[in-house]
Design goal:
Order of helices and strands: EEEHEEEHHEEHEEHHEHHHH
CATH topology: 2-enoyl-CoA Hydratase, Chain A, domain 1
CATH superfamily: 2-enoyl-CoA Hydratase, Chain A, domain 1
Strand content: 15-25%
CATH class: Alpha Beta
Largest sheet: 6 strands, mixed
Shape: globular
Number of strands: 11
Distance between the termini: 21 Å
Structural class: alpha/beta
């Protein structure tokens, strides 16, 4: 079995950051920390003009929070620190001066929807359905909510947050604005991602950096906001409801 990893490779001014976990690309705290660090480093690297964010495997982009870590949280501070991992990744993506292209090859759940939403331009396959499942376990998509709402609008975000049992297909996500395009195969997706990345490398990097500031205008308070949201999730994960639900899932 392939062990978990976060890795980066740079080719012709394109930095590709890839994460993987054998449990459907779920993200435990150590992987979240590495992911945030690599995104921040790519943003500072003068040899990089564009970033591609992807995951390993075929049919799952990201299953969200690590279930094993959720079960083992036993105090509010530990919970806050865990959910801060997603906040740090989203904020790293927000602050990165380079455009980040999302490559979503399959299903994405919970925190994974937040990561996809925080990309600047997201491409997907028809298998890339999405679900915000947090209410199922007694918490909510508090940390990723601002990023998801920014892409889907309040109506779309609230719909999938409330209907926490359902997957919404890739075409729904495209119509709502999460995905720019949806492809039939991973091969077509990869070709489109590479073509877009190469095209962006021919643009003025200063112009792209200024455009990114424009796109993210109004999110300047997210360091504070997402930290507050992480504390809410960290408290709720200790509730009797959540603890009993997690035991049933286990």
């Amino acid at each position: 079995m392939t062990p978990p990893y976060v890795k980066e490779y740079i080719n012709k001014q394109i930095a590709t950051i890839e994460f993987f976990h054998p449990a459907h690309n779920s993200l435990p705290g150590d992987l979240l920390a590495k992911l945030a660090e690599m995104i921040e480093m790519a943003g500072k690297n003068e040899d990089v003009r564009v970033v591609i964010l992807k995951s390993g495997g075929d049919r799952t982009f990201c299953a969200g929070a690590s279930f094993n870590e959720l079960i083992n949280i036993d105090d509010a501070e530990t919970g806050r620190q865990f959910f801060s991992g997603f906040a740090n990744v989203i904020n790293a993506m927000r602050k990165c001066p380079k455009f980040i292209i999302g490559r979503v090859q399959g299903k994405t759940v919970g925190g994974g929807v937040g990561v996809a939403s925080a990309t600047d331009y997201c491409l997907a396959t028809k298998f890339a359905s999405i679900k915000l499942s947090e209410l199922n376990v007694g918490i909510g998509p508090f940390v990723v909510g601002p990023a998801v709402e920014r892409k889907l609008g309040l109506s779309g975000m609230s719909q999938i947050a409330i209907d926490a049992n359902s997957f919404y297909d890739a075409d729904w996500a495209r119509v709502k604005g999460l995905y720019a395009q949806v492809f039939d195969t991973t091969e077509e997706l990869d070709e489109a991602v590479q073509k877009l990345a190469e095209q962006l490398c021919t643009y003025n990097p200063d112009a792209m950096s200024e455009m990114k500031k424009v796109f993210w205008k109004g999110t300047e308070d997210w360091d504070k906001l997402l930290a507050e949201r992480a504390a809410i999730s960290g408290r709720l994960v200790l509730s009797d409801f959540t603890k009993e639900t997690l035991k049933r899932f286990k």
